[in-house]
Amino acid sequence: MTFLLKTEKFIDYTMVVTNKNDTFPKKLRFTLTNRIVDLSLDVYHNLLHANEIFPLNREQIERRLELQRLAITHLKELDFLIRLSRHRGYINDKELKHWSYLMADTRKTATSWHRSDKERYK
Q: How far, CA to CA in Å, does 13 sit from each of 17, 30, 100?
């Protein structure tokens, strides 16, 4: 469950950064910021659902691994969007560093869990 707590911290900081009126221009509120928030919530959704699967057969194992892979892919996309936000000047270096750290920590934990499950369910 550690990965869910890390994901919650990442989502919380994502909400703080994307909801500040002076961070992202108003015209990006319904494109970039919504995409970032939606992907963050999708990461939590996928990890939670993967964690709720206690595999009894090959199909359930594959579903669990697929949800984990999807969450990891979303985190890779979020990494790009966070870096893009800095490149475009929407966030500062301090925000980039902290946000990237939270995202990378979540991604590392999810990747380790996925790798462990892959090995366990060979």
A: 6, 18, 10
